[in-house]
Amino acid sequence: MTQQTPTPEQEMLNWGRLLMDGLPFADLIAARDRDPGITWFDFWMSRADSYETMGEAAIADGHAHTAGYWFWVGSMAAQYAQFLWFDERRQEGQLRKATLYHRAAPLLNPPAARVDLPIDDTTIIGYLRVPTDAERPVPCAVLLGGLESTKEESYLFENLLLERGIATFTFDGPGQGEMLQDVALSDDYDRYASRVLDHLVTLTDTLASDRIGVLGRSLGGHYALRSAAKDNRFRACVSWGGFVQMDDWDFEYPMTKQSWKYVTNSPDLETAQIRVRNAIDVRPVLAGLTCPTYILHGAKDETPITEVDQVKEYATNAQLVIDIEPEGDHCCHNLGPAPRLRMADWLATELTR
Amino acid sequence: MTQQTPTPEQEMLNWGRLLMDGLPFADLIAARDRDPGITWFDFWMSRADSYETMGEAAIADGHAHTAGYWFWVGSMAAQYAQFLWFDERRQEGQLRKATLYHRAAPLLNPPAARVDLPIDDTTIIGYLRVPTDAERPVPCAVLLGGLESTKEESYLFENLLLERGIATFTFDGPGQGEMLQDVALSDDYDRYASRVLDHLVTLTDTLASDRIGVLGRSLGGHYALRSAAKDNRFRACVSWGGFVQMDDWDFEYPMTKQSWKYVTNSPDLETAQIRVRNAIDVRPVLAGLTCPTYILHGAKDETPITEVDQVKEYATNAQLVIDIEPEGDHCCHNLGPAPRLRMADWLATELTR
User: Fold this and answer.
1) Phi (first) and psi of residue A274, to 5 degrees
2) Contacts of B50 in chain A (CB under 8 A)
3) 3 state DSSP class of A243
4) Distance (Å) from the C-alpha of residue B26 to the closest C-alpha of chain A?
């Protein structure tokens, strides 16, 4: 299925993804050319430390915008330090990422307001950002992370939506970021998305409760399909490089399989595959998807393009927009801003018509 | 003086500069890996065409933000198509750049309002951008292009200032962009900057006339020093990789020498060097510089770091902040966002204290 299995370093040094998510090019060059005695993890965690120091200096000098930027870039450096390691580094990097983002949040423009939502025996930690100059109430997009992406990484995409007059809400659900310690990957991500929605619809002064959409990237695309299929309060749905089911996982790269094992809290890969296959299957509920839905997929994604056919086969009650990029890799990270702008424009249009 | 003379392709494919000025990474990869039968110029002009088409499609679909972005990126593609060619391609690319930016301007956020200012027998074409959510009147920064950079390329730097509450004004002066056909490089750039200032101080509802600064990049840094030295209405000055004089030009790369020849409208390099040496010398007036002044220089810039010593020697009446980056190349383009953020914060602080 795959043409070539990348080395860990090749899989981690995904230039399109890291740059489009906001890491400076200078850091990628430095990571590539680093002393071979310095591990990938240590390199990026050291960058995170530097950026935190720069953020603190900016605060001391009264430069709040710059401080917010450095704390956020530091958070991204910690993210990409840990995102494909599965020992104690994972947790250390995740904690560092979350901590730095918490520091960045009030300094971002517009700020990200932290929201804690109790559910079962745990808490959903999320962030709401509202465009400053738009007339309220405004529409809102709920943004979902994926297998190793979390609420902190959608910042640049949020900015695209915010300048189009759309508020954004991000959070960690089962198997993700700050929730992983309490709840592993599960088959009911939609319940967490609905819990978020229960909260958002109460913010009637700020948000237009009948204009809330959902967008997810990679595994988050799967979650977006599930969430919109199960909760028809979502008025628009975007699956950005997502998929329908995981009956087979031979196409996955070795480190990605390790990632599945990690987020399912499995003792071995065999167990992980069974758990993933059982939890990740939206076919039984996809007929419930009734809102307009946008599917972006790169034809050169290792996640098979046949997933798009499955969306068409099972989502029989939704108006689908299918956007296939012939040269796109996973999530079309290699194609620059065009696919992201198309998704942002489509979602903004659907939520404001 | 130089360690290595770059090939034309190496000089043009300046990753740090092109990325920090906003060209998508995917385009740089495509430029590097293009069919050898396609010239650098044709590759980028074709990208400009594609981006214009995408901008038009976005307008047709009602996506004004996206249209503005594509027209602007198209303008940048045309800029970097032509910036180091000196035959008819130069003028063709310049015209394309200006035309695409004119289309982008009203769609940018905040918009860039075109201003035409008569001077002598020609017209200064400039653009004013004003932060939308700041209380007026706001401070303003006048941004100056350099040897092959023009009013269109400062967009991302403008955004840094705008989010810090500072309006921006960019224009083409002698030897630059849309003015080059009328006026070649000259020794009185400051007169054009003062003409701009004469206009800006009349906009009393919008701009705080006693809080206007000037910043220039590369040769624009030289112009900034000259402009602030000759017109003490400028309250702060930034020289971003600038220089004081051009008595010697052995350090310049071959294509940069061609660029000097082009903007001085010289028949040969010998004539060009004489004209440049005569026109580009701020030492005689630098004692007139009295406003706070920030000097950024990369120690690995081919423009000698001794230029900083000359600023110190001649600018005896200004409070200087000297910021030398040991690993910085020309304008520190290779270092990512940090130097740009420092300049933006310093300038915003000086203009709001």
Assistant:
1) -65, -45
2) none
3) coil
4) 6
What value of ipTM does the predicted structure carry? Answer: 0.94
CB contact under 8 A, A25 and B25: yes
List residues bridging with A170 in a β-sheet.
A127, A143
Which residues from A are below 8 Å from B19, CB to CB? 19, 25
Q: What is the spatial distance between Cα B183 and Cα A142, in angstroms, rounded to a whole number?
A: 54
Of the three residues B109, B131, B164, the one that is the final residue of a domain is B109
pLDDT at residue number A7:
82
Give the number of C-alpha atoms closer than 13 A to the C-alpha of residue A207, restricted to the C-beta side. 25
CB A51 within 8 A of CB A73: yes
Q: Tens of pLDDT along A263-318?
A: 999 999 999 999 999 999 999 999 999 999 999 999 999 999 999 999 999 999 99
Chain B: nearest CA to A193, how far in angstroms? 29
What is the arrangement of strands in the sheet containing A138-144, beginning at the earlier edge strand?
Answer: A113-119, A122-129, A167-171, A138-144, A207-217, A237-240, A293-298, A320-325
B253 and B298 inside one domain: yes
Q: Which domain holds residue A60?
A: 1-109
Pairing status of strand B122-129 against strand B167-171: antiparallel
Residue A25 belongs to domain with CATH number? 1.20.1440.110
Same domain, B260 and B153: yes
Sign of CA dihedral A319, A324, A328, A329: positive
Count up the domains in chain A and report the number: 2
If asked whether residues A49 and A130 sit together in one domain, one would say no
Chain B residue with Cα closest to A70 = B338
Measured between beta carbons, the chain B residues lying within 8 angstroms of A15 are: 25, 29
Q: A49 with A137, same domain?
A: no
Strands (E), chain A: 113-119, 122-129, 138-144, 167-171, 207-217, 237-240, 293-298, 320-325
